[in-house]
Design brief:
heterodimer, A: about 325 residues, mainly alpha, 2 domains, B: about 230 residues, two-stranded antiparallel ribbon, elongated
């Protein structure tokens, strides 16, 4: 069969298939989308199309025709082999099973990231108790005085309530700032893990320096009662973001039995799930930080109690939730 | 051979060809997206600045979402293409040609942060140069590629002429070359058409326009128009 008669014979079939594709194509405005009759056997039609494509290829039909059939088959391939979308039950399964058990299964990375983060944090915090001047080698002086005025127990704004609009402004700020830090910590893992290590150590140092300094000058109550609430979610999330990055870096440094590309893809799937969890935790943290931690007119004992309870929840969650998949 | 065409095998056992998009066209798409995004930033700012600090909070959240999730939202709901990609006729798909999922779209776009380093997609460009699929780091991890999306019609646009049997028997690739030449005639200037036809003067025994005519007639014969 020559090309022209081939085209002539099967064009109606191809048109029918294209019509079906267009009828499902969200690109085309609904009013102009064709209607496809349900009686058409699409899988059969698609297999025929595949057959025609390989015929056209092997018979050396013109590049134009091969390309046309190729594009049509490609559209069919994409339409027929679509992945299912996520649902609410998928989300609940993630929160109450997948995420905590994934963190547990990667416990080595969890502790590694924790050491990289908390090590510098407590290290510099302790060092500042011994040598208060050290804070200036980590943070610029303006920032130090900034933090000082923020947590000054004698300052006017401590003990007064903030406007709810201001709370929302801070919520936006925390969302943008903290989640971006989380994403950077994760993405930095692509640089053989070095970026993640840098962000973990850097953030550990910065937080440790601020905390150490404020405790050393005697502002510990205002400061700690502020951070204890959201710290559980925020600090743990940063550690997990670091884990996700180290997972990518690990695949590049030590791919094991796989090629680097394949190892990276496999690690990517796991670390992305960790990042989902990081996003959720940081949203919760930003919410607590903006609407609860900032409530200056509350008794600090109450804030400590709630703060410890939140730490308890986070620890309980990662230790015990999802040991068995919910039915 | 330098070729930007990749084949994938479908479950039906047929080879599908994908035409990969390179750094330049993706760069253009990115610039268009920057413009679109800037327009959205300005709109967000105008609307939310009327709402005081509450609006500023909303604006910060919107900026955060735009910064990280603008490409994800479009890749999910606009068939794998941001407005920039759409206007350049390219889209994101998985390595096996299937449509991009939320997971892979998120992964490739979160890792944009590294591709962008040290400045202006330096690492991304390097990565694209060092693998044959033009993948930036995000694409490598997510298992995605960027391809052209052209829709064509089945009918060949070779001009109909009285077919003529070529004087010598031509091998399949040679036939293909002549057919492709005939298909692309209207993309060339007449001078270029003649120039190319003159290469085959030994076969056609004609020069310039007549040579072009001959080749067209051969093409018609090869297409089976007898």
């Amino acid at each position: 069969m020559n090309q022209d008669s081939f085209t002539e014979k099967y064009q109606p079939l191809w048109d029918e298939f294209e019509n079906w594709l267009n009828s499902r194509d969200t690109d085309i405005p609904k009013s102009r989308r064709p209607v496809s009759s349900i009686s058409v056997d699409i899988p059969h039609l698609y297999r025929q199309l595949c057959h025609h494509l390989s015929l056209a290829q092997s018979r050396n039909y013109s590049a134009h025709l091969v390309e046309y059939l190729n594009q049509l088959t490609l559209r069919g391939h994409q339409r027929l082999y679509r992945a299912k979308s996520n649902t609410l039950s998928g989300f609940l399964d993630f929160v109450f099973y997948e995420f905590p058990s994934l963190v547990r299964s990667q416990w080595r990375l969890f502790w590694l990231a924790s050491i990289l983060f908390y090590g510098p944090l407590f290290g510099i915090g302790y060092a500042i108790q011994l040598n208060p001047e050290l804070v200036y080698s980590v943070l610029p002086p303006e920032q130090v005085s900034n933090f000082k005025s923020m947590y000054d127990p004698d300052a006017e704004h401590i003990g007064t309530d903030r406007d709810s609009d201001d709370d929302f402004l801070m919520f936006g700020f925390y969302i943008r700032n903290n989640i971006s830090v989380g994403f950077q910590t994760f993405a930095g893992g692509m640089l053989f893990g070095l970026g993640s290590i840098f962000f973990l150590v850097y953030n550990g140092l910065a937080i440790g320096a601020v905390a150490g300094h404020l405790i050393q000058i005697g502002y510990s109550e205002t400061f700690l009662s502020f951070v204890v609430g959201h710290g559980s979610f925020e600090l743990t999330a940063i550690v997990i973001a670091g884990m996700a990055g180290l997972k990518l870096g690990g695949a590049l440094v030590r791919p094991g039995l796989y090629s680097r590309g394949e190892a990276l893809k496999r690690a990517g799937k796991i670390s992305l799930k960790l990042v989902y969890g990081v996003i959720l935790m940081l949203v919760v943290a930003a919410f607590i930080e903006a609407f609860w931690s900032s409530k200056g007119n509350l008794d600090s004992n109450l804030k400590f109690a709630i703060g410890y309870a939140l730490w308890g929840i986070v620890i309980f969650y990662f230790l015990f939730i999802g040991r068995r998949r919910a039915a | 051979m330098l070729d930007t065409r990749r084949s994938i095998e479908t479950p039906e056992g047929v080879e599908l060809g994908l035409r990969l998009a390179g750094p330049v066209v993706r760069g253009y798409a990115w610039i268009i997206d920057i413009l679109v995004r800037t327009a959205i930033y300005i709109a967000v700012w105008i609307v939310f600045s009327a709402l005081g600090n509450f609006g500023a909070g909303l604006a910060l959240i919107s900026i955060f979402l735009l910064e990280w999730f603008y490409p994800v939202v479009f890749e999910m709901y606009n068939q794998g293409a941001t407005p920039g990609k759409r206007s350049m006729g390219i889209k994101v798909v998985h390595d096996d040609g299937t449509e991009v999922t939320l997971q892979s779209s998120l992964l490739r776009n979160l890792l944009r942060a590294v591709d962008f380093l040290p400045f202006m997609y330096g690492f991304g460009l390097l990565s694209m140069m060092f693998n044959r699929d033009f993948k930036r780091l995000g694409d490598l991890t997510a298992g995605t590629i960027v391809i052209y999306t052209d829709k064509l019609s089945g009918a060949s646009d070779i001009k109909k002429m009285s077919p003529l049997t070529p004087p010598v028997s031509l091998a399949a690739p040679e036939q293909k070359a002549i057919i492709q030449y005939a298909e692309r005639l209207n993309l060339f200037t007449p001078q270029r058409c003649s120039e190319l036809a003159n290469i085959l003067e030994d076969v056609t025994h004609e020069k310039d326009e007549k040579g072009v005519q001959r080749l067209l007639q051969y093409a018609n014969w090869m297409m089976g128009r007898r």
